[in-house]
From TrEMBL:
Protein name as catalogued: Metallophosphoesterase 1
Family the UniProt entry places it in: Belongs to the metallophosphoesterase superfamily. MPPE1 family.
Subcellular location: Endoplasmic reticulum-Golgi intermediate compartment membrane
GO MF assignments: metal ion binding; phosphoric diester hydrolase activity
Top-level division of the source organism's lineage: Eukaryota
Membrane association type: Multi-pass membrane protein
GO BP, one annotated term: GPI anchor biosynthetic process
Pfam families: Metallophos
Organism (species): Dasyornis broadbenti (rufous bristle-bird)
Gene: Mppe1
Amino acid sequence: MLSSSSTTVKNLTLKRRLCFLLKLVCFVSSVLIFCEFLIYYVVIFQCRWPDVKSGAHKSEKETSASVLKAIILADTHLLGEIKGHWFDKLRREWQMERSFQTALWLLQPDIVFILGDVFDEGKWSSPQAWADDVRRFQKMFKYPVSTELVVIAGNHDIGFHYEMTTYKVNRFEKVFNFTSGKLITRKGINFVLVNSVAMEGDGCAVCRTSEAKLVALSHKLNCSQQKPNHSNKRCNEVEKLPASEPILLQHYPLYRKSDAECTGEDSAPPEERNIPFKEKYDVLSQEASQKLLWWFQPRLILSGHTHSACEVLHAGKIPEISVPSFSWRNRNNPSFIMGSITPTDFSLQKCFLPFESRVFTIYCAAGALLVILVLAHVQLLTPPFYFAQRLISKHKAV
């Protein structure tokens, strides 16, 4: 009889332990699933495509069809074999992969632009390391046939000017089909891709080739924007392009003294805003900046490189948007730009990704709660309910 009772007690104890263990597993799994998967949907679901102005004579269906939906991001900095720790790689790359794939699924853009510094060690990578980095990039940033991906070269992809070689440039161009001075036209909208590392102005081989292509493209665009009754013999044999003012896409920002005038929660920290920028390193030189403005007279410039947000006006009328880094490694609050663009207008909206600090806070809170539950279960910590009940019992006894 005693043996049967003892067995029953042991079975009940075992069941309780298994039940508690199952609850802990469910709790931990729920926290992991939320922080590593669901949180990206919760945050990015709140982002909306901005409205863009259109002519009153156009129907809603025609207007929607003529708007190009573009996502712009920058500075992913996929870690390489030299400086990249395996856990750092795992954490940052998972964050970017989930952010990118979630954004594609929820927002369904027509085109995605990445404004350079795709890799962190492209300027140093051996052929084998480069192939491995490219494979990881293609896994993380895979995209459906309904979306186009356009990648711009940055200084970490091909090196700063003094590190840039024809081999590195060709290696990058082969993978991403990128050339400086390349024109992409979608829905009548002209995008000009610029290798800003090659805008050194010292006559290097890559620089000469790049500038020659930009000058030729500038001539085409200028001829295309002239009125039909405007006679210009130099434009007679030139291929006509859509008469839409171009949008420049590049890695380096155009020249500005510093980020002192930049504002917003994702702009540079206050202690960094007044640090002067170095030409040809932090920003393009004044000469190169003036060339690009003069050649193209763009209606918008999009750049990266600084890892912080900034909006400036050039010549009092041409806006430039510096896009912050897409990686938690570079900032706590990464983001990307959503653009609704037509041949004559555009509207931009920022979409923030989950803050790393908030994810960390959730994990810390869940960890603390987990410890409390375990201690309470093994009776090393008295649950608050029983503690209050004992106090009431003692009070009544007195």
